[in-house]
Amino acid sequence: MELFNQLRKNPKYWIRFELGLIELKGEKYFKEIYNRVLSIFDFLFHKNDTIQLIASIHTPIKYRGNELVNIQRFLKNKKLIYGLNCKTVLYEYDEEDTEMKTTQYSLKLKKEDIRLGYLFQAISNTDFGSRKPRIEGSIYLLNLTNSTLLHMYDDRGCDVYSLDKENLLPLYRKYRNWILDYNRIKIDHIFEEGLFNYSETSIEMENRLQINRSRVKETGINLYEDNTCEITHQLEIPKKTIEECVKEIEQTGFIIEVDHRYNDYSILEAIKTEALALIDYQTELMSLYAKKYNGKYKGWSVQRAF
Predict the structure, then answer these.
(1) Tens digit of each residue's pLDDT (9 = 90 or more) over 274-291
(2) Are 263 and 175 in contact, with CB atoms under 8 Å apart?
(3) Vertex 10, ends 167 and 252: CA angle to 5°?
(4) Which residues, in sequence order, are CB contacts of 46 under 8 Å at separation 6+?
(5) pTM of whole model > 0.90?
(6) Residue 84 φ then ψ, to 5°
(7) Cα–Cα distance, 229 to 275 (Å, whole number)
């Protein structure tokens, strides 16, 4: 488990992907989740790779119930369960000042051994009491062949980790429009692409945040906490860089509309509906895109999605 612990605690390279899209409803919502996580998994895990499935369960040390996750249901060949290993780790859970234990179950498999659709459905349904299958605890898929780790934490998203940049760089480039915007700037810096080498001065940041505070009061919507809103950002981009700018921002998953009526510049509108529509990180993202393409960030407007 040394590799697993290293990837979880101190990975050199990581990406956080958004899976659940709030604008999708019913089965379309879950269908997109399965499409995304299976695409990411298939990109990282190949037929002959050795995979370690790891289930971690946190329980108070005083609890004596059955913590075992029913891993057998995720296997095509039930006899593979005989290779299951178990390890218990004690630690202090600071928030409740309660001694906790983590029980880790691990099993080496091949890709073809896992009922992937069923596994990802169970994880997706974690916070949906009426949907089955469901699972308690955390499931990790560790690729022992190329030292990468995938952790789908629930319907909202998944993380991938590696010690080698080249293991994740092709994935970053192929699915960059699925990267969670909240972490996009940090992830771009990790892979030295996108908004790497672009940043705000302290004065620019304070001016942007001050404008945000004023605009939030005007809207009457608290854009500093979880909400579901459609936010439209407006950028003024020179004609000579507008095509390249549109191409890059489209890779973030924003809907782009462009007004070319002006002589020297175009007005670009970037629109997205998000459940976590926190205004500060979105305005930082768009301010940096404007800076990268020698333009100006003109501001934003918002409306509730529902």
Answers:
(1) 766 689 999 999 999 999
(2) no
(3) 55
(4) 111, 145
(5) no
(6) -70, 135
(7) 7
Picking from 148, 115, 111, the residue whose alpha carbon sits closest to that of residue 13 is: 148
CA-wise closest residue to 299 among 267, 273, 275: 267
User: Of 216, 214, 242, which Cα lies nearest the Cα of 229?
Assistant: 216
What residues contact 164, with CB distance under 8 A and at least 6 apart?
12, 13, 146, 147
Structure tokens at 1: 């488990």
CA 19, CA 211: separation in Å to the nearest integer? 31
Please provide the size of the chain in residues.
Answer: 306
Other C-beta atoms lying within 10 Å of the C-beta of residue 201: 8
Q: Half-sphere exposure (CA, 13 Å, Cβ side) for 302?
A: 21
Which residue, 98, 94, 85, 154, is CA-closest to 121? 154
Structural domains in the chain, CATH included, are 2-179 (no CATH), 202-304 (3.30.70.970)
Report the C-alpha gap between 173 and 15 in whole angstroms: 11
Q: How far is Cα 296 from Cα 267, in angstroms, rounded to an integer?
A: 10
What is the sign of the dihedral through the CA atoms of 252, 256, 262 and 263? positive
- Using alpha carbons, select from 122, 133, 150 the residue that is nearest to residue 54: 150
In order of 107, 119, 126, the CA distances from 59 in angstroms are 21, 22, 17
Give 72-101 pLDDT, tens digit per residue.
999 999 999 999 998 877 655 545 555 667
Enter the tokens of residue 50.
Answer: 């050795």
DSSP state of 179: B
Residue type, 92: E
> Radius of gyration of the chain from Cα atoms?
22
Token pair 């940043």 is at which residue?
199
